[in-house]
Q: What sequence folds into this?
């Protein structure tokens, strides 16, 4: 039970604190915008500085001044947008079975072609021992949490490619949209015998898309990334070539570069872009991307009207003007049709989501079948107790 | 054309059925005769149809676009809408003859629904006892419903005047004491 009366006071305190942060961030934003202007005028030198600096945070590499904005290209007359999403019933040892279920949805929306839209979802039940456990780094690990998330992510990408390839056979340009980042940083630091095969499986989808010349994009609403802000921190450093490991300003409070700390790229570009416009394609320095090969992920920020979003694309999309334009126009028009968020992703989510009642129904079905086969089917006493509280 | 299904039963009782239309926005006409395919086909008259969102918590909103524009710009909408129709059961077929009373069992869920063949409409309307069932419908204006069914049968019967006379006589028998209702039906048939 949540005591709402007690929490309401804390909410009031939070709002007061938030207001202070908000006002402070506005000042920081003005400083950041000032730096953008300065560095645009001496871009070549700034770019060199970025290349040479050694910072403790990830920087966005850029090839153009930050003020450069690309207007919205004209949308093609015919176009098909494909999106997928997924959800799961995670394994729970408190339930009647420790199996888990992954529900992958797909949405194919043809525009101006007269074809019918397609919305569907496919559940897959994982119950074999080799599905439920992985062995890597010398350990047997249960497939749950991040590992399950990654498996689902791969399944989503595989479905996306499968549907996009089929859609492309109708002869119209296709664009694939995924919800969230295409940078699987979760794999960083994982044992090689898990990381390598998993990444290979993930990137195989990108390779299939590249061979078919179908652009893929990851759409990130309300991005919290600050790669570009971090680059501006380099601009604020009094040293010509910053090296954070040997920072001579540690005695300063705050650090000279910290005056724009706390800002996100999204906030910065909300001031630099007009609705429909995108930034240049930046390169991310995430370590995992070193293993991406030709699929190395770049990103741009796009003003979709209600917000600035981050769109991630593989290198081969970024370097193909036609595909890049397609992603730009699809991300914008999809958000426009969906009232601020891409309609294809919203519908894919709707198709994939497993509701509480459906989850309960799933376990009920499992119980029925187990009992019918004369097998033990019981939830844990803890779970049982949670459902039936007495006084 | 009569042989392609026009819908599938998704709800039924001994007296009524609800079916999902195979075509969006194209349910069988109000007052028309339909048949639920089964070993013993069940016959019914359509008294209501509607189109709505498939998911109860998703409301339809106005987009201020023509249907063609919507099909071009928001194609997913048409996959999220369903047309349904409701019909009142008026009889069934048993050993090759049409029985003008309720079937012993309601139509099975997921049975296919077809438009009645003109020959079947003729057989169904050779007796007009089914008017009683139409008069029992509460969810639709009864005068409209009976007039609609009579008009549908009249067209199938090559506009035979004698059929209208027969229908009029049956109505007098059933609702002769309700002058307003009777005249309202007759007026609708003449239009």
A:
């Amino acid at each position: 039970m949540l005591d709402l009366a007690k929490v309401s006071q804390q909410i009031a305190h939070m709002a007061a604190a938030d207001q202070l942060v908000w006002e402070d961030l506005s000042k920081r934003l003005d400083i950041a915008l000032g730096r953008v202007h300065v560095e645009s005028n001496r871009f070549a030198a700034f770019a060199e500085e970025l290349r040479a600096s050694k910072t403790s945070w990830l920087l966005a590499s850029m090839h153009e001044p930050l003020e450069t904005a690309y207007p919205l290209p004209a949308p093609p007359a015919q176009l098909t947008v494909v999106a997928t999403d997924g959800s799961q019933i995670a394994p729970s040892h408190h339930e009647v079975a420790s199996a888990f279920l992954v529900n992958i949805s797909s949405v194919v929306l043809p525009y101006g072609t007269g074809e019918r839209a397609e919305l569907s979802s496919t559940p897959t039940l994982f119950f074999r021992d080799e599905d439920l456990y992985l062995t890597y780094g010398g350990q047997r690990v249960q497939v749950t949490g991040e590992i399950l998330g990654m498996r689902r992510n791969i399944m989503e990408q595989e479905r996306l490619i499968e549907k996009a390839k089929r859609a492309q056979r109708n002869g119209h340009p296709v664009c694939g949209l995924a919800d969230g980042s295409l940078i699987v940083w979760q794999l960083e630091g994982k044992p090689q015998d898990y990381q390598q095969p998993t990444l290979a499986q993930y990137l195989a989808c990108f390779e299939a898309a590249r061979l078919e010349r179908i652009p893929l994009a990851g759409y990130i609403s309300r991005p919290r990334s600050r790669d570009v802000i971090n680059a501006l921190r380099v601009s604020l450093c009094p040293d010509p070539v910053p090296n954070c490991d040997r920072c001579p300003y540690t005695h300063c409070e705050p650090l000279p570069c910290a005056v724009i700390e706390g800002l996100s790229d999204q906030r910065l570009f909300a001031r630099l872009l007009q609705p429909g416009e995108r930034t240049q394609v930046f390169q991310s320095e995430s370590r995992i991307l070193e293993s991406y090969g030709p699929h190395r992920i770049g990103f741009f920020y796009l003003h979709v009207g209600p917000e600035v979003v981050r769109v991630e694309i593989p290198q081969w999309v970024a370097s193909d003007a036609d595909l890049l334009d397609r992603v730009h126009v699809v991300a914008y028009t999809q958000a426009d049709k969906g009232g601020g968020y891409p309609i294809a992703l919203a519908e894919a989510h709707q198709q994939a989501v497993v509701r509480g009642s459906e989850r309960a129904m799933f376990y009920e079905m499992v119980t029925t079948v187990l009992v019918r086969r004369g097998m033990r089917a019981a939830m844990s006493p803890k779970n049982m107790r949670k459902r039936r509280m007495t006084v | 054309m009569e042989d392609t299904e026009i819908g599938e039963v998704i709800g039924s009782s001994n007296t009524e059925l609800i079916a999902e239309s195979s075509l969006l926005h194209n349910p069988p006409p109000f007052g028309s005769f339909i048949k639920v395919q089964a070993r013993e086909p069940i016959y019914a008259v359509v008294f209501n149809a509607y189109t709505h969102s498939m998911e109860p918590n998703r409301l339809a909103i106005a987009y201020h676009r023509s249907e063609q524009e919507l099909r071009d710009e928001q194609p997913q909408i048409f996959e999220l809408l369903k047309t349904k129709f409701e019909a009142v059961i008026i009889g069934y077929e048993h050993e090759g003859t049409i029985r003008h009373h309720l079937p012993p069992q309601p139509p099975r869920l997921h049975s296919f629904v077809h438009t009645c063949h003109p020959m079947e409409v003729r057989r169904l309307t050779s007796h007009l006892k089914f008017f009683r069932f139409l008069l029992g419908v509460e969810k639709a204006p009864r005068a409209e419903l009976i007039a609609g069914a009579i008009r549908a049968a009249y067209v199938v019967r090559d506009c035979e005047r004698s059929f209208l006379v027969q229908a009029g006589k049956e109505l007098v028998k059933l609702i002769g004491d309700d002058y307003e209702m009777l005249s309202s039906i007759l007026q609708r048939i003449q239009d």
User: Anything to note?
Assistant: Strands of chain A lie at 79-89, 100-111, 118-126, 133-136, 139-142, 174-179, 216-220, 282-283, 297-303, 308-314. The interface with chain B takes residues 107, 109-112, 114-119, 337, 343-344, 347, 350 of chain A (CB under 8 Å). DSSP finds twelve helices and ten strands in chain A. The mean pLDDT of chain A is 92.
